[in-house]
Protein 1
Amino acid sequence: MHPAVQGLLTIAIGVSACIGYFYFSNVILDKVIFPARGKHAGRNINRANLIRPWLFLFPAIAALGLYLAYPVVETLRLSLTDRDMGGAFIGFENYRKMSIDPKFWEAMRNNALWLLVVPAASTAMGLLVAQLTDRIRWGAIAKSLIFMPMAISFVGAAVIWKLVYDARPLGTEQIGILNAILVALGGEPHTFLTLPFWNNFFLMVVLIWIQTGFAMVILSAALRGVPEETIEAAIVDGANPFQIFFKIKIPQIMGTIVVVWTTITITVLKVFDIVFAMTNGQWETQVLANYMYDKLFRANDWGVGSAAAMVIMLLVTPILVWNVYNARKEMK
Amino acid sequence: MDNIAGKKSSLTWAVHISVAVLVFLWMFPTVGLLVSSFRSADQISGSGWWKALFPQEQNVMIRTAGPALQQQIDGAYVIEGNLFEQDDLPIGTVSVWGTSSRDINAYKPGDTADLGEDGQLTIAENGDYTLLKTTEFSGSRGERVFLTAKTPPTFTLQNYKTVLFSGQATDKMGKAFLNTFTVTIPATVIPILIAAFAAYALAWMDFPGRALLIAAVVALLVVPLQLALIPLLSFHGAVVEATIAFLGTPDPDNLRRFATVNGLGRLLGFEPGEAVSSKGYLGVWMAHTGFGLPLAIYLLRNYMVGLPKDIIENARVDGATEFQIFTKIILPLSFPALASFAIFQFLWTWNDLLVALVFLIDSSGDTTVMTRQIVELLGTRGGNWEILATAAFVSIAVPLTVFFFMQKYLVRGLLAGSVK
């Protein structure tokens, strides 16, 4: 059977199974278990309404529990055990092994660089574009074009930027724009992606290129939400455009800036495809997510791989707590 | 507005120019890939793609037609033709030409070169040539001509034919394209359905533990899916082993291979000795469903909470069941939020590499997806930009189309989805 047919069949089966589940579980609840008639009609309706939310929630809770909550616990367990010794508990041995691996520290250093540069640069660029395009007539088109990389896969972006960074030996025609400019200015061509340390920044550019659009969309909406009166008052008081931007607008959208910043931070912590496709961690460009993939599927070392995954989880946790705290505050 | 006091900001021009520069910078890399995908391998390595949009000066060696085509006119022997057509080049204009590789700038268009006993050669600006001789031409090959010519931009669709239809083992893009669709559609539809019901319960039903569940969804929003890889791969393996134990007996050496198959297993098409991989479409659909659910529930719940309370309460008073309220009122009203999430999930599953690598692609490679195929090409054909650019563009084209047509919903979803 062709996979596409299989896919269609799965949609049909999956969708009808879902609808069937929701429909029949409701019917059974209302008509069979707690029928709304007879002498207990009122009590039955109340009981049915106590159970119904859980009918609606069951598939989602099952999927979330199995595919997201359970793995966190299981990964923690794996990181504390040794697979070769039949899953024996070995304490922090895997973490110790990882901490003496220079590649791990290289990944940590690079991740720290990514965390410093990418969220800051994307947010700043996004803010800049949002502010500039708000003031011109063709702003919507400009925004849409800068937003476009959001739709492109990290792998596609990797190919796009590899062409930009492409290098040919001196004397032949350069087909990568960066080297073409370098050579035209009288320099020598560089293979940018194999230049230790600096190549990290060339990889970061790809993510900044993608994430700026995201930052721009959110911040642009926030900027439009800034009350007119505050700006009018500033103009009347003789503020220049820069003062209006930095002293009136920015403080009022600080909350949104933080949200954008943290969202991009999470993306950065998980970044995998770009490094995997462009350098695969060679030439000192390793990052945590790729390090973990290496350990899990190339070295087949589940212990250290899981330990690396736990490090990513640990780094995400502060943001997780903060998000939950804010969400709860908002609901009250 | 900033210039509310009626004075036109002196910065307006600076703003226009900086936005233009930014847009140019942002578009440039993508356009480069698009243009490259329409150029031949020689063109790509011959010049940067940005030159492809303008006529280019290039040096080519072309042979005139051979003596077989000679005609006798007025007692002289003549070979005529057009050099560009001869070599299947686009018709360009000749700037200079020569007959020896040491002196390729010897003649201007319209000049006549004396080739001694080989006759006289005249080349016009448009590439028309006349080779004239009093005696008969002999041999089998034509005269060599070194041209410096300006050729207009030319583009070809050949790369797309090669990538999609050539059927070569290394260029499985056509297959990968279908596979990607096969992954994407169920992985988009199923979570929407599950999430919609859950979101309704979280938004409009009252029950103990609701606040806790919402908090859990917000927390799961940021859990890196990296943590899920090994546990779930083991889980999928366990499911395969349980299925085999149910439909027959497993091979003692390999629990994921049938030793015998019982009646039910035969009915489902399994055979003794058949191995079942723990990787496959079902696994990847489930994984994408699980990973997409937190965002789906979060987006949909936030939207549904904002729906007017009156409608729902009136319906309740009129005796509608919760199921009816959900399907007849909530779902249609929530269309914008459903569309937002559908686009997110579609883009995410279409562009995904990691989940497909771990849960889908087995050693046979039959179920490869485009992102994986492109990474493969980057490794094996890193220098073949015509293949690489085309393959990448094939995979980018679908999300870009979705993006431009449904941008409104994408923006709306982003605004609702970023945790406030």
Protein 2
Amino acid sequence: MLTKLADMKRIISLIFLLVGFLTFAWAQEETVEETVVEKDKPVRSPFESGYLIDQQTSVIKVPKTLEFVIQHKFGTVENGRSDLWGIYAPGANIRLGLNYVVAKNLQAGWGITKKNMYNDFNLKWTLLEQTRQNTIPVSVTLYGNVAIDSRSKKIFEEQQYWHSSDPDGVHTLHEYRWSQRLSYFSQLIIGRKFGEKLSLQAGASFSHYNLVDHTGDHDKIAAHLGGRFKFSPQSSLLFNFDLPLKIKNISEQREWTNHPKENLALGWEISTSTHAFQIYISAADGIVPQDMVMFNQNDWKNKGLCMGFVITRLWNF
Amino acid sequence: MKTKNFLAVLSAIFMSAVFMSFIGLQDQKKGGPWDVPAAYKSKKAPASTAQSVNLGKMLWAKHCKSCHGNNGLGDGPKAASLKTSPGNFKAAEFQGQPDGAIYYQSFVGRDEMPNFEKKVVDEEERWALVHFIRTLK
């Protein structure tokens, strides 16, 4: 018994020593890194705002900044002048959001969207910032959210859903559970500023819906590409492209009958000290990213484009 | 006859607009002297380069132009709605100040001149803006 106790003490001491050593080693590394970062500063404004039409950028403002964002998408242009190319179409979608920078390169946000009355709570963390002398050649950002479909409970109760545990062809009415309202989105974004004018970013995302109809998938992986070309001190051209991937291994469908379509967006941005205005045309009618990846059926090659805008306003505390 | 009346009404509207804008400008008070702390007054600007002036110009367009105008004359689109005149940066009185005083006025601010310390956080960018303001004379 005594031997066992002595062994345990020895093991605990060893663990403490190891942790202490690792902490010391880490602290040493941090000191070295801090010195390097001081010499090589992050690049100036790879993007003017944290938004790139339908996507996020690596940009997070200084701590204690509050951002109010209005994202608005009109209907599709398919009906032409009869509804002023979608501007007066009934299918508009709007998101109002607030973001707050809680610490350096860490932002928390909340938004509410008209479509499905999504309440989304999101976090963005820029792990690495590209530096001017290329000590760090790219920026690396993580973005994630959880969205709550906050429509009436009736909407959930009246529908039949297929669950992956059900036998083929059997669609049952599942009992309503609150968790069925939840969906998630997580994304890794890698970006680089090429000179003063051009910035590009690429990303990969994973979306999950707790509840989908029997033609859909619960999970979807998507690839993202975006960029801006700054042609004057305040103006830039923007683009983004979101491609939901057809991956059989994570699909619950035998055939791609209702696979979401890719989203293409092109826009023009004007930025000022406290505002960014983005006017654009894009395919997806959704604004919450998992909605775009999972449900977009607008085809940009076939008049499936909507006009829209993003306005951000910043306050510093 | 109708055309004459129409022209008379148009002229009256135009004259009123000119008159009102004149009143508006007259209502703007001139900002009093700045109380710049000695620590700022003695700040030394790094050497100005073509690159820093160009960077300053970009920052000017984003942060300053809307009130101070393209050339620092205080005639930007937002200037008319201010109670205090944004001033004339070409004036010898303004340009005669030390760099540190212009730095303080630009980034610390007072009253209607907002604080820009959290919008332009990089020291290098701040001095670049001062360098550009120096080219306005």
Protein 3
Amino acid sequence: MTAVVLGPVVLAANAVDTFVQTFFRGAALGSLYALLALSFVLIFKATQTVNFAEGAMALAGTWFLSMVFVDWDVPGRWLGGPTWLHWCLAVVLAAGMTAAIGLVVERLTIRPLIGQPHFTMAMVTLGLEVVITIIAVDAVHLTPRVLAVPWGTDSFRIGGAIVAWSYLAAIVMAGAAFLWTWRFFKTRAGVAMRATAFDQEAALAQGINVGRVFAISWGVGAAIAALSGIFASMAPWGPSGVASRDGAFFVFRALPAVVLGGLDSVVGALVGGLIIGFAEVFAGQYLADHASILGYGYQQVVPYVVMLIGLLIRPYGMFGTEEVRRV
Amino acid sequence: MRGRPNLYTSYEAETKLFPTATKKVLLGLFLVVLVLMPFDLWVVDQIPVVRFLGDSVWLRLVNRMLIFTIGALGLHILSGLAGQLSLGHAFFGGVGAYTAVLVGGKSSANLWGWGLPMWVWLPAAGVVAAAVGIAVAPTAVRVRGLYLGIVTLGLIFIGLHLSRVFPEIAGPGDLGRKWPRLEMRLWKEESAFIDFSRDGHWLWFDVTKHQKTYFLMLGLVLLMAWFAVNLGRTRTGRALAAIRDRDIAAEIMGVPEYRYKTTAFAISSFYAGVSGALFASFVGQIPPEQWSLRASVTFLAALLIGGMGRISGVFMGCFFVVMSHRFVEEIVDWAKHQAEGDGLFSPVFDLVISRGSGDGGLISVAETALGYPLPASALDEIIYGGLIIVFLLFEPLGMYGIWIKVRNYWKGWPFSY
């Protein structure tokens, strides 16, 4: 299925260290899932469609970072100062470029279809997935690329537990994104987005520029997808990470998080992402003795199993709005 | 009253399989052409331009297309008729394929297989897939729309994992294992009485294995399409359409939603299972990765490009989805020859085609085509993905919609109404 095996089983000095290490790994993976889920949710709230091209966008964002920072050395050729600052600027630039893709996609393919059945829009994004992946992988050379992450494979210690800096970075990134979203929903544009999500026609009648709301949500959604793609491609998460054709499927493992939390709930994205992340990592760590029965790589299926159980209990996710259907 | 189009005086007349004599005759003619298709007929060769397929590469592609059509017909029942978005259709194809190899495959030290004949494994593939479909239904029926799409997407990943858990069935590693051949036996005797996978002799004709396979697949497709069309005319079909159009209204009218959705899942999985089993044994050996999201998307694309909810649309869509890759290859090949020749337009083609690292152009035909300019194989993927989008944006009814427009234009010609 995927070449990305997220972290091998850790063997630390004692049980507590193992737990702490596993906890951080779970929190980091959960943060990445939550980030992706946030991106899905923002796009779903505005345009009522699941963006199946998210994986391709994450892939494109990761390529952009590699191109901007490694190949072109973009902020570095004009700016002095430390490399890590250049890297951060390059990340912002890559996210911005992916946001541009999101804007173009929204304007050309999604907006003409507003009001069509969700079936149609979901298929359009699946078509986009094919196109963007091919362009990102084949047109930009199918060679392994480096992201030149400033902290590389370094890690720090908490007691006896070893925690990679990348894990902490992922957690911080997700925290920042959710904080930003929380703040954003209080601004004028954010309120407009919430109103549009609630009722498009009513929002339009109130003078809200619904088209701009769509554009914002797709742009932001694509940028967040790029960020999660970048942070999922760092050292402990497999050598190629998202930046490979298989890696795009990493994103599909975040879909259970969205469904578990509810397709239209930001809180749900956070909680769902963390639950799925913890479930996957803890199952990978503590059920490893039974791997011969469960099969190699069983932890990658855990998200889907959790999702299926969750859906049996609550068909619209934990925080999702139940669909009110008019008769 | 007779002879007026669109005038029906009874419900029976309206639900007739072939409402007009013209349709009957045309379909009959079409069937004759289909049967004669794989032969090199002397008569046909005398007509300029027109050629039947004969035993060519195209016939192999047609076989592939027919197998694919069976699966697409299944998805048509689930998505086109009952309106349920399923991204897990390939999973059921996989279930069918692995049932086939378990029942019909040969066993060895680390592989399971009972070596039973085709008349056992082919129906078994369908029935087991349908049973799995029924088992999945309790979860799938509870969720709607995109949630259903994501749940069924989960099936694919669970299926891929199961194929790794049971290497005894799926075969070791990424190569897969040998599938039973397409051949009819009574039981486990030595020689098959109809062998679709070897050249041979039927009546007075020499037929190759591909021609034999063609007739097997054609028969199966016609049978399954006939069933699918008829299903739409029965109580079950009307119930499914009612659920598709408005599920609450359907339930108020006394259509048990749960039961009919489960039925739709079962029937569509049956089709998928049969198609998967046939495909695997047609190819001979395939890895588990074959049953991926990509395959599911291809099924959906066939439905959407052809035209959602129409049997004729399913056929057109399958033709397009399976053949388009080959067409793109042929066109690129032709353009390459044009560019190399010294015709009037060869400079134009030379601009498009890139023949090496120094040569500019959009499409690469170099041996080791990697990266930009794109090789033809990547190009047709882009065209395929792009066409899905274009059809959805501009012609939601797909090729069927185009056909209706063309037909109506000529129907009213020279008037535009």
